Amino acid sequence: MATASVSTKRANRKAKKSKAAQTVFTFQWKGLNRDGAKSSGDIQASSVAEARALLKQQGIISKSVRKKSKSILSGDKPIKPMDIAMITRQIATMLSAGVPLVTTIEMLAKGHEKPKMRTLLGGILNDLQAGIPLSDALRPHKRYFDDLYVDLVAAGEHSGALDTVFDRIATYREKSEALKSKIKKAMFYPAAVVVVAIIVTVGLLLFVVPQFEEIFKSFGAELPIFTQFVLGISRWLQEWWWVFFIAITAGVIGFIHSHRNSQHFRDKVDALILKIPLIGEILHKGAMARFARTLATTFAAGVPLIDGIESAAGASGNAVYRKALMQVRQEVMTGMQMNVALRTTNLFPDMLIQMVMIGEESGSLDDMLNKVANIYEMQVDDAVDGLSSLIEPIMMVVIGTVVGGLIVAMYLPIFEMGNVVG
Question: Where are the alpha helices (DSSP H) in 139-161?
């Protein structure tokens, strides 16, 4: 029996390797349809022979079949998190409609517009056809399916409610990506305006101010202090612009390197950005929304509360909340109620704690957490809209002050000269 089991595993591995080599391509074909009329179109297959066989099954006599060349617009586009959310929703819909899992993945693998997604789904399909469970087929692709995703799928397989679990995962992913997009919008707009302001200011100091300096030399009079200050900055920048450029480049590279390689540095950054006026408040609410949504999804899927809190800690997106939730997890493991453990962190607001307490007492923790997530997601949405409307006039004032100050500094000598002549 053991020998048969080993040989079966080896056969499955060989089948997996042979099928993994197959990649789904798009082929253009021309031929005759069932009525004998000329026809053409596209079809997905792993080879020309397979494409011809599929066309024959459809009653089409193929005259020419060739691989479709990749265009600049529809070429190898990367797989984005929203693509995974859309695929998850499609899987949930098809499973709910009674379509078998293997057929569902096969249809999605052949019909997706992105070649990389077709390849990814094709590999998962090969594993499923080799008898590997879906959760195990997803686990090697951690770049697209994180541990939380895989654990939820495994819970769905064990409970026999895979369609329900995929529906919950799809809802979770869709709302998470929407929340992430709002937070990025809140942080991107002011950063973009500041960068533009710096570029404009440096351009004026390097190319416009020197032209005025040549004119001022012919005045033969002492320039105003403000004008001298601006001219001094311009001269320094003209002479040492490379130091300025190297300093900014080194700062950006150093920040990226430290953020990528140092957990301590990342934790410090996470703590600091929570203290930024306006933006910090949005990040606080976003972290609480992600925590509530993740824990609600895992708890509803049958994942134990302890494991759910650990997943929610990782999904919160901020080191401050991650440490606080891991502390909550330790307290819950000792038998403390979660609402009491949340209160001991001095981080979560009373409204969230009270909702959790009601959920624990009524046995509807997942429903209460979903309501909490909805509340904070709406608050994030309102805060982002308010921030956008508030930052726009502030940035206009800042840019106007900087650019206007440079213009005033350049025209002050001209005004004083006019007063002397007058």
Answer: 147-159
What does the DSSP assignment read for 55-107? HHHTT-EEEEEEEPPPPSSSSSPPPPHHHHHHHHHHHHHHHHTT--HHHHHHH
Q: Which residues of the chain have pLDDT under 50?
A: 1-11, 13-22, 71-74, 420-422
Instruction: Look up residue 222 and give its DSSP letter.
Output: P
pLDDT at 221: 65
